[in-house]
Amino acid sequence: MPDKKIILSEKELPTAWYNIQADLPVPCPPLLHPVTRKPATPDDVAPLFPMPIILQEVSRERWVEIPEPIREIYRIWRPTPLVRAYRLEKALDTPAHIYFKNESVSPAGSHKPNTAVVQAYYNRQEGIRSLSTETGAGQWGCALAMACSFFDMECKVYMVKVSYQQKPYRRSLIQTWGAQVTASPSNETHAGRQILAKDPDSPGTLGIAISEASEVAATSGGRTKYSLGSVLNHVLMHQTVIGEESLKQMEIAGEYPDVVIGCVGGGSNFGGIAFPFIRENWLNGKKARIIAVEPMSCPSLTKGIYAYDFGDTTGTGPLAKMHTLGHTFVPPGIHAGGLRYHGMAPLVSLLYDHGDIEALALHQSSVFEAAVQFARAEGIVPAPETAHAVRIAMDEAVKAREEGRKKVILFNFSGHGHFDMSAYDRYLGGELEDFEYPSEKVQEALSHLPEV
Ligand SMILES: *Cc1c(COP(=O)(O)O)cnc(C)c1O
């Protein structure tokens, strides 16, 4: 039997990130200034981000070198294993070959440190000693807290209130790495107070937490910068180490995927695994199908519209052209907190609009059903976000059985679910509810899209 795990040596760690902007069929529409609605200049975003990050955001260079101090930290958990899910294949009685790229082996338990350490590094190089950020499920807060501890920086995390309550140990982990964490919406910021005045019981959203964290940076007089865990071009580029390693590992396995799958919240783990394979489709005659999977409660690709919208809820930050459900939309409180974002990465949105990728939306009960089946076959308990990709990988494998043909399936295992056991408790106890697609709330939110 061929190997279960395909492991690269540390010498094979990628030396450059892949910047898909070099190969796009049409250029990615720029961010717009929130007031003038003109393309944001580097100076406009300089209060939020350090210059090397701003330049990466708009770069058209195909390859961007990974600085050695970042590679040194990557080596704590990278290269990550590519795993053949033999036991799952057997359980599904499928002729399909299922591979997953295991990003759950990072110390924070997800792919998020792949960009967190990069952002901390470039800020520290510019002399910044303090970062602020938001976190949905807590994964990003953990990743940035860890990265800041490596570079001896302060870190302030606004954590979406439902997650803060549902996941006390993510909060503890953030504090263990030395960061400060506050439930959002909070009384600490103008944005938070504005939301609380309207809705004192607001469960919070990523958009609200982004408003709070970016306000802290924008009003710090340059002391604190802001860091975003997904959505932006530079974040997706940092994550391409996932796909570049996967390409080498699939080659070692002697196979090439027919289908590449990732879950999408803001689009970073999906972009990370998918962009190098999309490049192979464009430039090297490959024909992999690329599938993004999102929750039915927050289906920005499948139900949103492609338009300029605010990335944050209060409408103070830059506007991005993206698939959006409206920046005022508050998604139902599903357990995949990391997928509760009203928008989608501009790059992923553009590729979807252009027909380079497909998208599917799922209810959480079918997601948890797949997660439990995966855990019982392969051992690892998926994060609820990750389980969206697991579900579709399994569905594709079952289809292969029904069609009686071999198919090679690759999905990104974006993180483990060890801090999500209360969600598993609810599922196992038969208490997990599915939410209908909140069509009216979305229509209402879409009526507040900004004019550009
Ligand atoms: C944050 C997170 C996601 C969703 O964010 P993306 O930017 O879309 O990747 C998915 N899976 C895990 C485990 C996460 O922590």
Share of β-strand residues: 15-25%
Helix/strand class: alpha/beta
What name does the CATH topology of the domain at 5-9 and 67-109 and 236-438 carry?
Rossmann fold
Largest sheet: 7 strands, mixed
Q: What does it look like?
A:
It is built from 18 helices and 15 strands. With about 450 residues, it is α/β, with parallel strands linked by helices. It starts with a strand and ends in a 6-residue tail after the last helix. The chain has helices at about 40-45, 50-60, 70-75, 85-90, 115-125, 140-150, 160-165, 170-175, 190-200, 205-220, 235-240, 240-255, 270-285, 345-355, 365-380, 385-405, 420-430, 440-445; strands at about 5, 15-20, 65, 80-85, 95-100, 130-135, 155-160, 180-185, 225, 260-265, 290-295, 305-310, 320-325, 360, 410-415. The model has no long low-confidence stretch (mean pLDDT about 95). Helix content is about 40%, strand content about 15%. The strands form 4 sheets. It has a 7-stranded mixed β-sheet with strand order 1-4-5-15-10-11-14, with helices on both faces. The chain has a domain at about 5-10 and about 65-110 and about 235-440: Rossmann fold (3-Layer(aba) Sandwich). It binds pyridoxal-5'-phosphate. Pyridoxal-5'-phosphate binds near residues 112, 269 and 385.
